[in-house]
Amino acid sequence: SEDLPASRGPADALAMSTDKAKEAIAFLQKTSDASGGTVYDHLAAVVGKILEEKPSGAVDLLETTLLVKKTQFDNALTPSVLPTHQNPKDTARAVAATKLYTIPQAPIDPETGEPEEVEPPNEFETENVLADAAMFGAVGVGFTQTEWYNIMLTIKQLGEDPVKLVKTLRFFGKFFGIQNDYYVFEATLQEEGEPPEEGDPNVMPPEEPGTGANSYVYYVCHQPGGPVTKLPDVTPEQVVTARQIKKFLSGDLKAEVSAFPPFPGVEANFLRAQIARIAAATVVCPAGFFAVGEDELTLEKEEEFVPLESVEMMQPENWCHRYPHVKPQGRCVFWAPPPPEDEEELENYEEPTPEESPELLSTLDNDAEVMGAAAWSALQSSSMPAVQFQVVGMRSNLWPGAIAVMAGGGFSKVLI
Fold first, then answer.
1. How many CB atoms lie within 10 A of CB 56?
2. Whole-angstrom Cα Rg for the chain
3. Chain segment 141-171, per-residue pLDDT in tens
4. Tens digits of per-residue pLDDT, 50-60?
5. Which of helix, strand or coil describes residue 262?
6. Each residue of 59-71: b (16+ CB within 10 Å) or e?
7. Alpha-carbon distance 287 to 364, whole Å?
8. Cα 181 from Cα 152, distance rounded (Å)
């Protein structure tokens, strides 16, 4: 060979090649400090697997196995499925869903070893969630079928709780948060909560439970089947301040609401104030379905109600507000401070003028415009006039996630 000195022959060249090969093999057989394996063993395992299985893509297998630290050649050392990072939210969602599909077992008495007696499930009224889901899906809004089913099971779980004693229960909607979301459920209780304690008579009090902005109780959870928290009643000050704030929800009910003006409460109170505003503005029903009672505060169902055709229900004048309007002072019923007791102040005292607001069951065509456009937009499941059974609805342009739908004589509302 031209590279070898003239004094060396073929035997010397062979000896040099053998030495270099031994040196290379020794290098490949060095044990890794991290894994304890060697490159030589890894290559031998790869080549052996290729010769054993004779795959069609042998080159691809070789390239792939050279890029990983360990392969599945040694089952004792390497798992068949590589471990992956588990998101805590996915784990919590899976645990909550498992509880929804599991029949609760009675606790065991440690003394007798027998199951303890449990209270019978509470009886309550609710809506047909899956039927409503079909209507929402027809107009292109809502959740997956699985999520709707889990929401239905959550309503069943919450409504049958013998401790909470729910009378009526429905799914209000879903609020998205930065860390966690909120599933909100609207309820009335068999026994109303205690009225708030009397404070300063010159300070505007919150409305009593079961009246005005506190007519309903709201429960929230982060995922269907998860722990449920009852939101506190809302105060006028919280509603007034919430109107001046635009802020994302964090997903933590105990989080401070960092905003200006300062909000009087934590995120649970802020969420409750926003629910009060949204409910008063977007919970609607077909016009004529309810009638105002004699006390002008409650609603009574009209027994002779006849639903209109689907085309007619795409007009805002055929829908009306079901909940009372929240006045600028943050209450549904106007409150005036008591007149001063001092005679001099009483001479100059003028009784405040009650704040005006839309009447109960006012139709949607009377709502104020939103940025120069109508307050509501019509929805329909199909633009083809030949479709016999249409699903129609209305979407709020003030709160775009609020949707009301109707098909035949049934209707529902949701916020997403």
1. 8
2. 35
3. 989 999 999 999 999 999 999 999 999 999 9
4. 787 777 767 76
5. coil
6. eebeeebeeeeeb
7. 10
8. 17
3-class secondary-structure state, position 20: helix
Q: pLDDT at position 25, please?
A: 78
CB 404 within 8 A of CB 393: yes
* 178 token code pair: 């930065």
User: Alpha-carbon distance 96 to 223, whole Å?
Assistant: 7
Tokens of 41: 């063993």
3-state secondary structure of 158: helix
Decide which of 63 and 24 is more confident: 24
Does residue 1 surpass a pLDDT of 50?
no
Q: Which residues lie below 8 Å from residue 413, measured CB to CB, with a gap of 6+?
A: 282, 283, 284, 402, 403, 404, 405
DSSP 370: B
**Is 193's pLDDT higher than 60?**
yes
- Residue 69 reports pLDDT greater than 50: no
Burial of 310 (0-12, 13-18, 19+ CB in 10 A): buried
Q: Which two tokens stand for residue 87?
A: 């998101």
Mean pLDDT over the full length of the chain: 85
Distance of alpha carbon 135 from alpha carbon 390, whole angstroms: 9
Q: Which of 85, 71, 84, 59 is nearest to 35 (CA)?
A: 71
Distance CA 283, CA 414 (A): 8
DSSP 226: S
